[in-house]
Task: structure prediction
Amino acid sequence: MTDPPFDIPFKSPHIPAALSADTRIRFRCYKGISCFNACCRQADVTLAPYDILRLKRRLGLSSSELLNQYTVPFQMDQDGLPGVKLKTRDDGTCLQLDGEAGCSVYEDRPTVCRYYPVALLTLREKGSSQAEERYALVKEDHCKGHEEDRQIRVGDFRAEQGCAEYDQRNREWYRLILKKRSAGPAVGKPPPVSLKLFFMASYDVDNFRHFVLSDGFRRTYVLPDGLYARLEGDDEALLSFGYRFLRQVLFGERTIEEVANAWAQRVENRRQVWEARRQAERERRMAEEDRKYQDGRDT
Ligand code: SF4
Ligand code: SF4
Result:
């Protein structure tokens, strides 16, 4: 038995036959093949965090600009865990497709595009604490690469497509989602604030940086010397830190040390703010009553 897989692409309705890195597949894709770019005209590309880093740098955008201009949101599970996909034209063509020239961001194309027609699965055997990576072959009518006369090991195909760096940067995030999916009702439905934090730490890395460097965050969490400086200038380090932070947010794991009494202090601060607001409202009402009384005497 295995836990349900976390798979790239995410659309598989069932657990497909899992292949290993040593499995040989028949496939070849090249400029000039009869179906060249057919896959990019029916694009269903779910993005992982490192995909966003690469694309935002490639396009010279902030993460918020990239998300606004080039992605659409969707829900990854019944609890509303947020995901993002590449935006397409109405006919399903990816916005990054540059006519016959092909993909305009090829060197920085997302994980799903690199792996296609292989799907990456992250799954765990029942009773094992280790998440494992397996693969599945996606066969779609438009893709003629399966008819080419080339046998290749999945592991070699993965290397050919430059997947290793992407997998390494996204691995902890895949595991986080697998854990959320495997735990099911045991961890319960995350509250809206946790879903917002998940979105920010996973996809909107520039906003996540503002959040981590804010005074409120520093008052709440204790980070080792030098880590703040690193997080200020290193997107990859920030991504890894975000995965750690999300384990705390989603599963209550103590992955980041909290300042002693930080929670009590936050509650106290909030109480003082509310009390100040109530006092201001009382004073406003008294001033209003006073004004009405004065108006009544003058007439
Ligand atoms: S990002 Fe590039 S490879 Fe991926 S679907 Fe778009 S055009 Fe195709
Ligand atoms: S062979 Fe498949 S992956 Fe390659 S261009 Fe054709 S449809 Fe896309």
Remarks:
- The chain is about 45% helix and 10% strand.
